[in-house]
Amino acid sequence: MNFTRWSARLPGTQRRAAARTDTALSPDRRADGSVPAARAEQLTDEAPPAAEVPGVDELPVRDVLDRVPALVALLRGPEHRLAYVNDAYVAAFGVRDLGVRAREALPELDEPGLFPLLDQVQRSGRPRTLKSRKAPDGRSYTFTCTPVTETKTETGTGSDGGRDGRGVLVFATDVTDHAEAAGRLRASERSQRETAVTLQRSLLPQKLEEPDDLRVAATYHPGGTEAAVGGDWYDVITLGGGRTALVIGDVMGRGVRAAAVMGQLRTAVRAYARLDLPPHEVLQLLDGLAAEIDANQIATCVYAIHDPNEGRLVYASAGHLPILVRDEDGTVQRAEEPTGPPLGTGGWIHTSGSIGLPPGSTAVLYTDGLVERRDEDLDEGIAALERALSGAAGTPQVVCDRLIRSAGVTPEHDDDVAVLVLQHPARGGAEAELFRNAALELLGGVEAAPRARAFASGVLTSWRFPTDLHDLGVLATSELVANSLQHGTPPMRLRLRRTDRRLIIEVTDGDDHLPRRRRAEPGDESGRGIAIVATIASNWGSRRTPGGGKAVWCEFVLHKP
After folding, report:
1. Nearest to 81 by CA among 70, 71, 96, 92
2. Helices 256-273, 279-293: crossing angle, 10 deg rounding
3. What is the chain's mean pLDDT, rounded?
4. CA angle at residue 518 from 510 to 279, to 5 degrees?
5. 263-294 confidence digits (pLDDT tens)
6. CA distances from 391 to 23, 217, 375 (A)
7. Cβ(424)–Cβ(360) under 8 Å?
8. Are 261 and 278 in contact (CB under 8 A)?
9. pLDDT tens digit string along 106-144?
C-alpha cells in the first residue's frame, strides 16, 4: 500500500503546523494531504552538510511509522480490513495477514474493547481514546483511534478502484509502568483507608450499653473513598441510679490523626461521666483537654443526661448541631440555646439546657455529615431532617436507617455520618408493672428514719420482691436515710424505683457535700453506713443535683426468672 496517499488527522497536528510559520511547505507537499513537513534542526552551526539528519518530510510515511516505538495499525473501509501494521506491532503480537477483517486479523484488540470504537470513529470522523487498557500480552496500552482519508487520484476515486477511501489509524502507547504505578498507589490508598476506618471503628463502642428506661441505636458511615476518614463518634454511658449519659461529637479534619484525637476525647468523656457531673462541667473539662491534645484540632460535642424521674434531657453543646425530639404525635422540637464554641477554643464558660423527653418520644443526635451539603444552607438541611423525623416511626434502628436514606447518604458520601437515636418508650399493661416509682418526703427529725423504713418495706412488699431482696432494700434505705439525717440538710426525699432489671434506692437532701466510703475504726460510732451500703448493693454512687444539694443512691440487680 502506498502511504503517501493517506492522510491522518492526528490530534494537535494542525496546531503544530500552524505554529511553524517560518517553514514554507512546497506546493506539492501541501496538496497531497500527507503529514505536514517539519524542518530539520541543526545541532550546531558548524555541523558538516554530510551529517545533517533528514527531515520528516524527506522520509516515506511507512519508514516513519516503522521507527515509532508505539504500536500502529491501519484499518480501512467499513469492514475495517487490515492495511498495515508497523514493526513494533509485529514484535508485540506477531505477523498479521493484510486484507483480513480486524476481528480476525487483530483479535488482541477485542479484550481492550476497541472494535466498537472503530465504528464510532469512522462514523463521527473524530478521534477517540481508551486510556490504560490491558491487552492479552499482559501489558497496558493507551489506544488512540484516528480517522484517516485516502487521497483521491486524478480520476476522483480512491487507490482501491472506487472503494470507500476512509480508514482508522490505531495508535497504541505502552503505559504498563504508569498503570502498575497507579495500581500500587490505589492499593496503598485502599490499605490506608482500611487502616483508618478500622482504627475509627475500633474506637467507637462495639456494642451500645442498654439503659433500663431507654431504647437506643446508632450508626456510623465513613465518608468518601479515600483514606481521609473523619473523627465522628458517639457513646451511651449508664451512670447508675437509672440515669443515662448520651454523647455525640465530631473532630474537625480528616485522617488517622482526627480518629486518634476522637479516641482520646471519647475515653475522656467516659472517665468524666463516671464522676456524674452536670453536662456543662463535663464539656468544660473536655475543652481544656482538647487544647492539650492538639491546639490546632477543633471538635464539636453534645453531652446529654436522661433522668427517668424528670422526663427530660439535660444537655450542653460545644458548637454542635441541635438535638431533635419527636413526640408521639409526630411534632418535632429543636433544642435551642445554650450552645458554646467548639472544644479546644478555651475562654468560654459552658452552661446546661434541657428539653422534654416524655414517654413515647424519640430524640436524635447527629453529626454535620447528615445535614450539611455544599450547595445548601445548613438550616435547610436541619429542616429537611426534621421533616424526615416527623414521619419516621418504629424502633430506634428503623429510625436511624430512615434518616440515613432520607438524607441520601451512600457509600460514596463525601463526609462521615454518625447518628444516635434514643426512645423513651410509653409502657402499658404487664410491662408497666415492671417500671414503678414511689417517693416519700422525709419530714421531721429522728422519727423520719423509722417512717422511711416502714415506707420502703411496704413498697417492696407490694412489688413482690423475694424476702432476701426485701430485707436488703430496707437495710440500704435505713443507712442512706440515716446518713442524710446526720450530714444533710432539708429538704430530704426518699425515692424507690424498679425496672425490669434493677431496684434503685435514692435519697436527696439540700447539702452538696458528697459522702465517701471510708474505713471505720473499732471505736468509731459512725462512718459505717456507706460501707454497709457498698457491701450489700450491686452499685452505689452520689452526685450533686442541679438546684443545689446532692443525691446518694444504690441499686440491686434483679435476677430474671
Report:
1. 96
2. 140
3. 82
4. 45
5. 889 899 999 998 889 999 999 999 989 888 88
6. 75, 18, 25
7. yes
8. no
9. 998 888 888 888 988 988 889 999 988 888 888 899 999
500-526 pLDDT per residue, tens: 999 999 999 999 888 877 665 555 555
Query: Which residues is 148 bridged to in the sheet?
Result: 8, 167
Output the pLDDT for position 218: 94
CA distance 191 to 196: 9
Distance CA 477, CA 438 (A): 13
**Cβ contact 518:483 at 8 Å:** no
- CA 226, 230, 234: angle at the middle one, nearest 5? 140
The pLDDT value given to residue 383: 93
Decide if pLDDT at 341 tops 50.
Answer: yes
Alpha helices in 204-344 (DSSP H): 256-273, 279-293
Q: What is the CA radius of gyration of the chain?
A: 40
In 407-469, at which residue ranges do the beta strands (DSSP E only) sit? 417-424, 436-442
Question: Could you give the dihedral angle defined by the CA atoms of residues 423, 424, 426 and 430, in that order, rounded to the nearest 10 degrees?
Answer: 100
pLDDT band at 348 (very low <50, low <70, confident <90, very high): confident
The percent helix, strand, coil of the chain (3-state, each to 5) is 35, 25, 40
Reported as a pLDDT band with limits 50, 70 and 90, residue 344 is: confident
**Helices within 441-540 (DSSP H only):** 448-462, 467-487, 529-536
Determine the Cα–Cα distance for residues 268 and 259; give it in Å rounded to an integer. Answer: 14
For residue 524, what is its C-alpha cell? 468509731
Please answer whether residues 170 and 73 qualify as being in contact, where contact means their C-beta atoms are separated by less than 8 angstroms.
Answer: yes
| Terminal-to-terminal C-alpha distance of the chain | 95
CA distance 410 to 404: 9
523 neighbors 329 (Cβ within 8 angstroms)? no
**217 phi, psi to nearest 5 deg:** -155, 150
Q: CA–CA distance from 400 to each of 197, 405, 463 (Å)?
A: 20, 9, 36
Coil, strand or helix: which one is 245?
A: strand
pLDDT, residue 165, reads 67
Residue 41: the pLDDT is 42
Closest CA to 503 of 457, 531, 537: 537
What nine digits make up the cell of 483?
Answer: 446518713
**Residue 26: what pLDDT?**
40
Give CA–CA dist 279/350, Å, rounded. Answer: 9
Q: Pick from 123, 109, 29: which is nearest to 72 by CA?
A: 109
CA 88 to chain centre: 49
DSSP assignment of 156-225, as one string?
A: SS-TTTSS--EEEEEEEEE-HHHHHHHHHHHHHHHHHHHHHHHHHHHHS-SS----SS-EEEEEEE--SS
